[in-house]
Amino acid sequence: MLLFEFRSFLLDGLLNTLLLSLVMIAGGTGFAIVFAAGLSLPSRWLSRPVFLIVECLRDIPLMVTVLLVYFVLPNIGISLDPFWSSALSVSVWGGANGAHIIRAGLASVPKGQWETVQAFGLGGWKGLLLVIVPQAMPVILPPYISLVTGLVQASSLGAVLGVNELLRSAQVLIEQTTISRGGSPAYLVYGAILVVYFVLCWTIALVGRRLEAHFTKPYSRDRHSIDRKDASSEVLVQTAPLDVRT
Q: Which of 84, 99, 218, 231 has the fewest CB atoms nearer than 10 Å to its CB?
């Protein structure tokens, strides 16, 4: 079987895809935190430039960003190889989209929680990480997991610059096999790649659902207790008129 015969070649491409995806996820999260902090600055003179940068990165097609980073940066003295050029371009794109997700999650936390944190002397990063962020995670996680799967899929753009990731390995395998043996195995190779990307994204979505359930569990327990209290109060309200008539 063709895939088994060239398994080591395809496995190298898969490992490069995983490494590139991890770098993009880490870089995108770092840029998202920085951009979200910039968007939340109280001074409009400082937050407005960050907003313009974020909107430009979101509105430019990702393929254009990849090509710009690879071909323009050398003109200003910054030369990156295809791997790191792909990682940087997709990371800034992911950071721009992730910044609004994080900002929306933090904004969903009631202002009273911020005041409570300051009242208990947990101001600054300590209160933000220990109190505010856990409450914002149920809002942040669902769209951010979708963004992470998008970053994994965007790792295939590295093939445009020549990164030997999974899609590039498949293209080379198809070309060489077609020339040497005749007949194109494209449907078989691309079908296998489709399955690999589906498994990767499905695994990420599964982990994301587990994390979402972990952060929403305390609030669901509180909601059940409130529902039970409301139900018991309704029973008391319904039984009170009966006592009056007797």
A: 231
The CB-side HSE value for 11 (13 A sphere, CA atoms) comes to: 5
Instruction: Name the one residue in this structure whose structure tokens are 């300051």.
Output: 118
CA 51 – CA 213 distance, rounded (Å):
32
Indicate the CATH number of 1-110+120-237 among 3.40.220.10, 3.30.420.40, 1.10.3720.10, 1.10.443.10: 1.10.3720.10
Q: What is the pTM of this model?
A: 0.84
DSSP symbols for 72-131:
HGGGGT----HHHHHHHHHHHHHHHHHHHHHHHHHHTS-HHHHHHHHHTT-TTHHHIIII
Q: Which residue type occupies 35?
A: F
* Among the listed residues 112, 136, 102, the one whose alpha carbon sits nearest the alpha carbon of residue 219: 136
pLDDT in tens, 83-137: 999 999 999 999 999 999 999 999 999 888 888 888 887 767 888 888 889 999 9
Which of 142, 80, 133 lies closest to 108, judged by CA? 133
Per-residue burial over 110-143, b if 16 or more Cβ lie within 10 Å, else e, is eeeebeebeeeebeeeebbeebbbebbbbbbbeb
Q: Shortest CA distance to 35 belongs to which of 93, 107, 117, 86?
A: 93
